[in-house]
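Table S2 (text version). Query chain:
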Amino acid sequence: MLVTTSRHKILVVGASGATGLRVVKQLLELDLHVTIIVRCVNSFPKSILNHHRLRATQSTLLEMSDAELQKMVQGCTAVISCLGHNLTFKGLYGHPRRLVTQAVCRLCQAIKTVNTGDPVKFILMNTTGNQNKQAGEHVSFAQRLVVGVIRYLIPPHADNEAAAAYLQTYQGTKDQVHNNIIEWVVVRPDSLINDETVSAYTLYPSPIRSAIFDAGKTSRINVAHFMTQLVVCGSTWQSWRFKMPVIYNS
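Corresponding structure-token output:
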């Protein structure tokens, strides 16, 4: 069931990334009001930047003041984070090492400060390599070993784990549904690929294949489509809130 879209204001961070850009496009196609924070507006596609329902702020989220960030989330019904580390030496090993986690923490605190209405939806793009231990997920010893090495050698993986854990531990839960200020979904795609159009995809509560030894494929445009549906489709949100769904191309 689609909900009325006219009242929605969506904040997207990581909007200039490959997936974030697709999220913004799909939200605008649904006539939603979208706000983005980008480091350089001149690097953003002009065709999207000039859209009458898009508001772009040139800044870096972690450098914004608390007051500025509170203004950004004021009135938002949903926040979507597609933040990630650039695949360069500086992006992988430079500072901030906890880019995603710090951004999620700051956004959640800003939401809690200003929100007086219905719970705000927080949608975080993550990775299927992040094991959801709270859901009782188990992986092989070999995969645990490899992920442990990755966690040590590639800081962004630990960052993704910490960001998801923050939402699970400190934000809304299904057991406190009437008191939540924030409700969340952590979306876990497998190996990301680029497709031009939305195609059939399948959602699972947990991985059905090894992220290390038998990785599947997920197109970025399908991830964007699912995230958009979480915003506008009430039944989709009810099905997946407080969960970490895994998405694969069919």
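Notes on Table S2: Residues 201 and 250 are 5 Å apart (CA to CA). The longest strand covers residues 182-189.
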